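Render Gfo/Idh/MocA-like oxidoreductase N-terminal domain-containing protein in 3D.
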Amino acid sequence: QPLSAWMRWLLLALVGISCAFSMPVRVGIIGTGWGVNVQVPQFRSVGLEITAIHSRSLARAQAIAKEHGIPHAFDSVDELVSCDAVDLVCVSTPTHERKNAVLKAIAAGRHVLAEKPMAVSFEDAMEMLEAARAAPPDRLHLLDFELRCVPALRQAQSFIDNGDIGQVQFVSFSCLANFGFLKDGATFGHWNSRECGGGVFSAVGTHYVDCCRYLLSQEVGKVSAVELPLNLAMPDADGKPNAVTADGYVSAQLLMTDGTPVHISISGRAPGAGMYENRMVLVGSGGTLMFDFFHTELKAWLAGADSNGEPTMTMGPEEGDAWSKVGTPQLGRAILLALTGESDQQEPAPLVKESLGMFHDGAQVQKVTDAVHKSAAEHGAWQVLEY
C-alpha cells in the first residue's frame, strides 16, 4: 500500500539524519610543510577527507595535489577558504602569515585548526580570538595542541586528578635535540627570526606550557627566562649571512597560579647528538610521572605502591613521537567526533570537551610566550601575568 504522508516525511527525515552523520569532514590545508608531511597522511588515516591544498606557488600546489590525490589546488587563501568542498581549514603557515589566513577562514564561516604558536604576539592572538567569538557558535576554532589527545597524557591527567601521585610539587621539561632550522648546513628561515614568530620556545615550549595548563588545570602566574640564539648568523639561500634573532636555547622558570614551579629547558642545537632527549618529569608528594615525547611512553610510580624502583605502570612506547605519529591522528579522531558524532574508534565524549585546545588556550599560551621573551630581554626579570 502507498505510504501515508507522515510516513514519507519520517522516512525522508531519517534518511537526511543518516546522511548528515555520514558526511565526511572535508579539510583544506594552507601550508606545505607540516600540513603535507604530517596532517595529510595522519588525518586521512582516521577518516578525514583532504580536499584542498594551498601554496604560494600554484605550480607547487598542483604538483602536491597530484602526488597526494587532492582534488583542489590553490595559490589564493581567499579561494581555498571559499571553496565549497572545504569544511575545516588547517592553517599550517609560518607563524607570521597565520593571523591573516585564520581571519579569512573565520570570515568564510569555516571550522579552523590553527598551528601553534597562535601568532607572533598576544595582541594578534586576541584579535583572532575575538573574531572566533563573533563567529556562529557551532563553528570550531582549534589550536594544534595535539598532546592533549595523546592517550598516555590523558592517563597522566587522570592520575593527577585522582590524587594517585599525591599533590604535585614540581614539573620539569627538557629537550636536547638538533632542530632542522639550527643544524649544520641549514639556511636562514622564518624559524630563525623573532619577528616571524620563530625560536625553539615557539616550536616546543608552547606545547610544554599548554601541557602544564591541561594537566594541572592552572594558568601560568609568573615567568623568568634566559635565552640565547646559539647561531649568531646563518646564510640565506643565496649565501648572504642573516642575523639570527630567535632563541636557539631557552631556560624558563614558571610559577603556576597555585604556586607549582615548572622548569623548561630547550636546546635546539646539540651537534652529534641527534634527537637526544625530550621528556617531562612530574613529581608529586607520593609518586612520580615520566613521559618521553620521542617515544610516547609514560612511566608512573603511584602513591602507596611498593615498586622497588620499578614503575607501577607503563603505557607505551608507541611507534613514533607524541606529536606527528600519535597526537595528530588522535586529534583527527577528536575533530571527526566533534563535527559528526562519529569516530573510527570508541572515544569518550570528554575527548571533545576537555582534550581539544581552543583559541582561548592558544591566546593564553601566547601570553606566556611573550612574557618569556620579555623576561629574557630584561636579564631574567620576573614577569607577572594578569588574567
